[in-house]
Amino acid sequence: MEVIAARDEFRKATSAVRAAGSRLGLVPTMGAFHEGHMSLLRAAASSCDVVAASIFVNPLQFSSASDLARYPANLERDLAMAQAVGVGLLFAPPVSEMYPGGEPETRVEPGALADRLEGASRPGHFAGVATVVTKLLSLCGGCRAFFGEKDFQQLAVVRQLVADLDLDAEIVSCPTVREPDGLACSSRNRRLGAGDRRAAAVLSKALGAGRAALATGARRSAEVEATMAAVVAAEPRARLDYAVVVDPVTFESPASLAGELRLLIAAHVGPVRLIDNLGVET
Ligand code: PAF
Fold this sequence. Notes:
By secondary structure, the protein is α/β, with parallel strands linked by helices.
């Protein structure tokens, strides 16, 4: 595995892969690997000849300096895990390499999709994500790029920006990987103490209750949303941010609870804010 810190070297290395006629897969990450990342890397390895992964904790997408400072990092461990699943190119630039002039003057501003839910709770977050993903895809060049469904709104923002800006990437989404109790894998889970870790399963339980409400005939969004909120309210360590049912494309409240829907939830458990989601079809 070649570990690269400089942008021009990453560009050269990925160009060489394509020049050799090989299909390139890119897995953009912020490191602190868990099984969710491993599933993205394995998916890339199974459908591409060469896998490139990036590890970059992007300051632009954090709305507070303390959240950024608390983001877990373990580069040595990540490198070993990446190597074990066959990553060929590992791009791990320092902040001064990605943003040599400090915060960039130009940002990619996603549309209305990014203003709701996560965007409303974390102003500027999706512009930060869209800006760094655009840079990574531009440096990498033509590739298949792999993103997890765990960050479902991010996935939609990325698909939109690739379409709007004609970026040369085929976006591939991979299902959320869960712990045995249903908790979605996330780097943030490491910050949960033992009691909060047990309580954190409440997010996936609430989604399951929302799905059950739909399956047993709930026909109003408010009913489904109240069902999910009640599950979270029963867990004293959790504080709900939102629990909604949306159209999976527009992220708007659906006109009717028919066809494909997405249940989305965000809650604080102890000091950690967690998100999760579930696709349902009625
Ligand atoms: O999902 C993440 O880890 C990040 O938001 C991403 C896509 C790597 C951009 O920094």
